[in-house]
Amino acid sequence: MKKNTLSLAVFFVCMLFPWAAFSTEEITAQKILEYADEIRSPQAAYRVTARVISKKPGKEDKIAVYEIWMKGKDKTIIKTLEPAIDKGTSLLMLRYDLWAFLQNISKPLRISLQQRLFGEAANGDIARANFSGDYAPVLKDTITIKGREFYALELTAKDERVTYHKVNLWVMKDTYYPLKGEFYAFSGKLLKTCYYTNYEKLLDQIRPTRLVLDNPLVDGQKTIIDYSNMTLDDFPDRVFTKNYLKKLKY
Fold first, then answer.
1. Residue 48 and residue 79: Cα distance in Å, rounded?
2. Phi/psi of residue 172, each to 5°?
3. Mean pLDDT confidence for 164-189
4. N or C, which end of the chain is more exposed by having fewer CB within 10 Å?
5. CATH topology (fold) of 24-245
């Protein structure tokens, strides 16, 4: 009975934390980043709702709602649901290429991952979740924060088309949960600080359901991204094309 109980315990640990089965392998900066990526965004094709709140001192909050379709790490569609004035606007990402489709323009417009989508959130913050593919990581240190150990990673962009040139990322040692990221421009300027919070079960994994993006230059100016309704979907590849953007239903 004890042997069966132990086997079941190991099974459930591996279901919630797939990397547990590989605990004997050497932990490298690349592996840490891959595990953190899988927690932030699953490899499977899925759709999820993102509610984005832009907060500025002395001003009323602004809210936008998006439905995001993702397939792998390089195919994304973002459908704007709110505000009503922007409903029907959509974005298509294929690897590093990004297009915006507006209802009153016949052809999609080429845009960049670095451009702002809403508040402090750039297009790439919403459309792309591929740190392990986009950046070369270095494990700088292991630090302790409030009694918990974290890996401190420094990520350098492999391609200038990505959203940020450099990212400092803190990842919890025992779970590989991302805690905090600092995002830098190619000039070296700190653009924003991101906190990964509100960990809940989405699909088969405990994931951060809230991202808080702080503007380092303006105290109290931030953007909050809340994720919900994550479901698997079997998207055909033809969905992720410029021609299909016109056929999207809202």
1. 11
2. -65, 135
3. 96
4. N
5. outer membrane lipoprotein receptor (LolB), chain A (2.50.20)
